[in-house]
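Technical appendix A lists one of the benchmark inputs used to test multi-chain prediction within the project. The record comprises two sequence entries:
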Amino acid sequence: QVQLVESGGGLVKPGGSLRLSCAASRFTFGDYFMTWIRQAPGKGLEWVSYISRTSSSTNYADSVKGRFTISRDNAKQSLYLQMNSLRAEDTAVYYCARTDDSGNMDVWGKGTTVTVSS
Amino acid sequence: QSVLTQPPSTSGTPGQRVTISCSGSSSNVGSNAVSWYQQLPGTAPKLLIYSNDQRPSGVPDRFSGSKSGTSASLAISGLQSEDEADYYCAAWDDSLNGPVFGGGTKLTVL
């Protein structure tokens, strides 16, 4: 069935960097917008970033703007999130989600955990 | 502080009907469709309702959504123990140019 699998999470020191990946399968990746969402421990969902089908349009939450970069490779059916200058408050489970034209996130991965701590 | 406002918790007994509210503003709920997500304990969120009142295939018709003005609601009828989960509303926000979420509502089935 349609699937998204995140990877790349881990433990990193404040100020460090990580690159998350999201591998898509069993659907035409290039037909969809893609979104990153995060969930801090015990907290709710927070939108992080989205990217359009051809990468022509991207946007970021104010909390990560200037530090995170979203990208995609449609040939590899993959989505990425480069995270720099990480802070303790970036600690969360990061989910990627397939997103339709109306912004509905209809397929989610299981998430990858990022912990920022010294 | 979430952009969309939901009650932190609600509860019901098996078979009962419960509703969860979601309040926003003219830049999000008032001008864009609302979706609802169910997050069972320890799992990823799952799309439950999209375009205000549409159910993806596989979602039981016990779940229904509605919207009026800048508010939306999720109703769950014939409550079952497996419905115990966190529920989030979401909508595109024209000012932020991105989706916004409610803070989530924890549903307890007594």
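The mean pLDDT of chain B is 96. Chain B has no helices and nine strands. Comparable benchmark entries are summarised in Table A2.
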